[in-house]
Design goal:
The chain is of the alpha/beta class. The chain has 15 helices and 14 strands. The strands form three sheets. Strands 3-10-9-8-7-4-5-6 form an eight-stranded mixed sheet, with helices on both faces.
Length: about 500
């Protein structure tokens, strides 16, 4: 037997003392809700009996109002299913003069909002984020994710959910899950941590926002990589930080240049294992210089280790945090890149003396992370599925990376490929050929989602190129996609 979901009772005001009859109040309320698009075509309505019970009135005025709305075409009745807002209403129902006269007119300049959001508003469209397919950044091979295993773990946890899992948890997250993360980080990333230092967050973007709120006061300077990750720029700008772009070369962030530009910066944001977007690895010399600067000045280092699990020509590089002996590094990691983006689960490793501050900020933002995803991920790790998935995808991305590098060198030999040793994106430098933004726009019109390197600069770009993701692009797709990309370059 098919069960039909009940309609939601809309917010309609009933005044029993008014001179206007109840049925007319109901008629006007529903009609206005439809005209103002608060109720949409095809939306199911509650039964007259349910509505009368909710409003605590007789069913007769409800029946009269519904009959009138049906007669005028605002409602439609479906045999065996109930009453719905008519699906054939015009796209633009004119608002009556009576209703229009009651609308508030705002004077220019009267709508005052905070200034900070302006720092992250995009004045120029970014079409390379408009779809999924060849070269889309941050798109893993979701078709190779062990969905059957994941679904089984979700179902098992859902069937056996406890009362404790249905109420608020701690701001830091589930202890068993944090213990699993700590064991993984100590083993795979040489991170010095205990479970008590780990906070579970909604992806690395929330981790950046929390870190910025804890560490920075408005107006304080922060080093950021140039070129660098726009998401980090946005999070830091929203915290009111003054961003100081520091150039990146083949050894990573140029620490000497940072000291020359702003020696007393409050913090530095870095991606040392796989710089975004150029893909270079910060040398040991630069890492030690950065740690020495932080210790000498009291600055904080925010290490974003977003895709360090994938390295193809050597073993994964140990985290910067593991070299830190002064507890100056806040370490950020994520499962969204490794597993699937919609998972939205990441983590922070916090210096012990800052745990209380981070916890307080997190609790003020959204209280605690969801319990179900943590429990399922803890099972996924403990039962070995996470390690197996890493091994499979590491081999898969290595194959796709080799296919892309080979196709670029064969079809577009004038492009210089950099940053292909790790992760699942690389950058193709347009040597002596400006116009990467126009090329990316043209490629997007052909279903290729190549980001221009110039979009990653805060200032004038020192070089231009295309940042190409290959995690979600199969080996079979790559040669044809590269040829189409070549046509976009020729036409730009």
């Amino acid at each position: 037997m098919r069960t039909i979901a009940p309609g939601i009772v809309p917010a309609i005001s009933i005044d029993r003392a008014a001179a206007k009859p109840l049925y007319r109040q109901l008629y006007d309320g529903y009609r206005d809700a439809i005209v103002e698009r608060r109720l949409r075509g095809g939306q199911r309505l509650p039964s007259t009996r349910t509505l009368a019970a909710e409003l605590r009135i007789s069913r007769i005025p409800v029946l009269n109002a519904f009959e009138q709305l049906l007669a005028e075409g605002y409602f439609e009745s479906r045999r065996g299913s109930g009453t719905f807002v008519a699906g054939t209403l015009p796209d633009d129902i004119p608002v009556t003069k009576r209703r229009a006269g009651r609308q508030t007119v705002h004077r220019p300049g009267a709508r005052v909002v905070a200034r900070r959001p302006a720092a992250v508003l995009r004045c120029t469209p970014e079409p390379w984020f408009g779809g999924f397919g060849p070269f889309r950044l941050s798109e893993p091979a979701v078709d190779h994710f062990p969905l059957a295993v994941w679904s089984r773990l979700v179902a098992r946890r859902s069937r056996n959910i406890t009362r404790g899992a249905m109420i608020y948890g701690t701001a830091m997250g589930s202890l068993p899950f944090r213990q699993a993360i700590a064991a993984y980080l100590r083993t795979a990333r040489a991170v010095r941590c205990e479970a008590e230092q780990i906070m579970v967050v909604s992806g690395s973007q929330q981790a950046l926002e929390i870190a910025a709120r804890v560490l920075l006061d408005p107006g304080q300077p922060v080093w950021v990589e140039e070129p660098g990750y726009r998401g980090a720029h946005d999070a830091l700008a929203m915290a009111g930080a003054r961003l100081v772009p520091v150039p990146v070369d083949g050894c990573g962030l140029d620490v000497a240049a940072g000291i020359e530009r702003c020696p007393r910066a409050r913090a530095a944001y870095v991606t040392p294992s796989h710089q975004y977007p150029l893909g270079v690895t910060m040398s040991l010399t630069r890492r030690l210089q950065l740690l020495e600067w932080a210790q000498a000045t009291g600055a904080w280092l925010i290490e974003d280790d977003y895709d360090s699990e994938y390295r193809y020509e050597s073993q994964p590089i140990a985290a910067l945090q593991g070299l830190d002996r002064d507890a100056r590094v806040i370490y950020i990691g994520t499962f969204s890149k490794v597993l699937f983006p919609a998972l939205r689960v990441g983590y922070l490793v916090i210096p012990p003396d800052l745990v209380g501050r981070f916890s307080a900020v997190r609790e003020a933002m959204d209280i605690c992370p969801p319990a179900l995803s943590q429990a399922v991920l803890a099972d996924f790790i403990a039962e070995g599925h996470f390690a197996r998935h890493l091994r499979r995808t590491r081999a898969l991305y290595a194959e796709r990376r080799s296919a892309l590098v080979e196709a670029l060198r064969r079809e577009l030999p004038l492009l210089e490929v950099v940053g292909s040793e790790a992760g699942f994106h690389l950058t193709a430098i347009l040597a002596g050929r400006p116009g990467d933004w126009a090329i990316s726009e043209r490629a997007a019109r052909d279903g290729l989602w190549a980001m221009p390197l110039s979009a990653c600069y805060l200032g004038l770009p020192s070089q231009e190129g295309l940042v190409l993701g290959y995690g979600g692009t199969s080996v079979a797709q790559i040669p044809g996609a590269v040829r189409r990309l070549g046509r976009a370059l020729d036409a730009a």
